[in-house]
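Below sits my pick:
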Amino acid sequence: MAILLLVIGFILFSIIWLFIELVTASSFNAFLDEKIMRRTKWLWVPIYALWRMFKEVIFNNKK
């Protein structure tokens, strides 16, 4: 039960923190660029690169 409360508390804190960041950003595009894309780039770039590698090397039809 304590772990569930911690998870819910963390999620609520994260939502409030993102809302404050959104309000203080100069525009919505700046918020997405500075706060979301740059902070999560370490997560999605390797996954995208791995998918591109599979698509170009493994799934490439041999002609």
